Structures are given as structure tokens and as C-alpha cells.
Amino acid sequence: MQRVLVVEDSKVVQQVLRHLSAQYLDVEVDFAWSLSECQQYVEKHNYSLALVDLTLPDAPNGEVAKFTLSNAIPTVVLTSKIDEYKRQQMLELGVIDYVIKDNRDSYHYAIKLVAQLLRNEGCKALVADDSKLSRSLMKQMLEKQLFDVTDAQDGQQALEIIKNNPNIKLLMTDYAMPLMDGFELVKAVRNFRGRDDLAIIGLSGAGKHGLSARFIKYGANDFLTKPFMNEEFHCRVMQTMEQLSLIADIKESAYRDYLTGMYNRRYFYQYAEQLLKKQQHNTLALLDIDFFKSINDTLGHEAGDQALKQVATLIKTTFSKFTVARVGGEEFAIILDDIDTARGREYLEGFRKKLAKYEFIIDEKPHSITISIGVADFQNTDLTQAMRVADAALYEAKNKGRNCVV
């Protein structure tokens, strides 16, 4: 489980960082005021990352960064001023990056940097370069940013690695390589991996005019000229990965129901169509809350929303291994992957009984809710037909008196 340690002695700055952490970091965050308190926290917990002030009352010369790094905690430094000597000192220490504390936006940048680094942890990256020294240097720099890095010595090898590893999210590729150059590699990769799925940063030596534009036209997200400064490399990679994360977040929000947090009808239909292309046996179920209109009419729409959210939570926790979605007002859908209709009915019957006994709290008062369920076989058919069968079964369940599985 990821956890972050922030060490800052300024009350005002720490307050700002606490506020921004609550906004951007979905992990446990501990705040320390001094080196001694930092040491106490490190004794108790394992940390994925540390954000530390370079100058503290009991550690005026960067001792806190040395301490966190000595405990194998990747570290980002906050500093009020920077000169070339201090910059070199921090880079030699092995910090990931430094942030200069000169305005509120710098704290915003620091926390967003921490958020992206946490997303990078375990994320797969590939470095393609025919220079062993260059590959080794970039591999070290990316590992410092918490990536899981693989390398390739030419374009053909890199292409095979990407084909066999769909989880790779970042490709750093040099232009001049034997067998297949950077341009050809980017064009080949873009045939099966889009810009919003795999980030590509092109690389080339100084003096090669027009390469940056050509790289980007062929499908790269960004370009770096060698030799590059540590900070430039770091910023380009972080900004590129942040854009990838933002696109993923937008896609995810487009597929989510705003009220329940479940997948919505759009996602459900796309996912179901993909399943139809596979040969495994699946079961489709439509679930509808009984007498939901009476909840809205007698208790109000806010109470109805409470009921929907609680039913959705129960569905999500019970069927956490399967795809569930809200496909209508009080209607939900479940695809039981690789489960035949007989077993699917058993699962759903057990859930129906569980829900009927569950005590829902609506407007701070206990309420009972039941559901009707229609089940259909989901193999060797199209989605429209499967939905029609499940909907007919649901309609029959309603006609039979509700609170049953058909």
C-alpha cells in the first residue's frame, strides 16, 4: 500500500500541503515538522515517497534528504533557494527532483509531481537506443522516477518487446539505430498503440534539424535533444505521463455513472460486445429495484438516490470479480464471465436473498428493498438479442410478484 511522508517546518506551508494532498493524493500522508519526527515516522511505516524541506531547524544542511534516501525512500526536495552548488549536491545525493518554494503554484506543482510519481510506481517503460551507455543512463533516470524499465538495443528488438508487453506505457527511442530507426519504430508502434495508450518520446543528438517535428508527425508525444539536463529529461517525462494520466481519467469518467460510481450504459455495451468475440460461456443479468417509484414519491428523490447508491454498493461488493453497470434509472446489469446460466442463477438467487434481508438506511431510518432479476445465456448470440431475452425474463419476474429470479 502506498504511503507518503511530508517533512516541512513552516506551519503555513504545511497547511497548504495538507490541503493540496487531500485534493490530489488518494493515499495515506504523514506530516512531520523535523528530522527527529521524520525518523520516528520511518521507524513505524514503509513509505513509497518522501517530500522534504531541505533546511530544517534540526537539519540545516539537507540531513533529512540524506536520511530518507539512506532508507531507500525516493525523495523530492523542497528548497527556498537554489544555486549550482546546491543543485549538483542534490543530484549527487540521488533525489528525484527539487521544487523551489517561491509561490503557491510551486506547492501545487510539488503535490502533482508526487501524485504522478505514485502513478509511475510499477509502470513499465522501454528505452530503445543502440548506445549501451545512453541506455544505462536513461534507465537509471527512469528508475529514479519509479518506473519498471526494460531496454532494447535497436528498433526491431524494441518493437517485439512492445508487441509482447501491452502494459508498457512509455517508450524512449533514439533516432539513429541499426535495423530499424526511431521513425520506423514509432510508425510501426502507432499501428497498434495510440497516443493516449502509449507515450513516446523521441531522442536525437544536437544539430539534427527537423527531427523533432518529424518524430511528432510520425506519432511521438514529445522530443528531447541529446545531451539533455537531468531536469529537462525529468520534466518532459513527467509532463508526458501526466497527459496520459489525464486522458485516462477523462475516459474513465466518461464510462462512470455520476451517482453510483458504477460503469455506465456506454461502457457496458462496449465491454459486452468485446466479450461476444470470445468463445467462453457467459451469463447476462438485468436487476431492477422493486417499487422504486414509490420510494421517490413517498420519501423524495434524495431518498431515492440514497437507495440507488446503497444497492449499487451491495452489487459492486458482491460481484467485485465481474462487470457491473447501471444501465437505466433503477436498473443494473451484470455479466458473469465464463459462468453458465445454471450457476449464474445460483449466484443471483443468493444475492437476491441477501439483499432482501439487508437493512438499508434511508433518511436515517431502516428500510427493506427487494429486486427482480432477469437472466439470459450470453453465448452465440448478439448483444441486442441477449438483452431482449434478459429484459423479457425481468418483465416475467415483475409479473410473478417481484423479488425473484427468472
Automatic annotation (TrEMBL):
GO terms classed as biological process: cell adhesion involved in single-species biofilm formation; negative regulation of bacterial-type flagellum-dependent cell motility; phosphorelay signal transduction system
Ranges where the GGDEF domain occurs: 280-406
Residues modified as 4-aspartylphosphate: 53, 174
Cellular component annotations (GO), alphabetically ordered: plasma membrane
Keyword terms, alphabetized: Phosphoprotein
Gene Ontology molecular functions: diguanylate cyclase activity
Cofactors: Mg(2+)
PROSITE patterns the record matches: GGDEF, RESPONSE_REGULATORY
Matches recorded under CDD domains: GGDEF, REC_1_GGDEF
This enzyme's EC code(s): 2.7.7.65
Name recorded for this polypeptide: diguanylate cyclase
Organism: Pseudoalteromonas espejiana
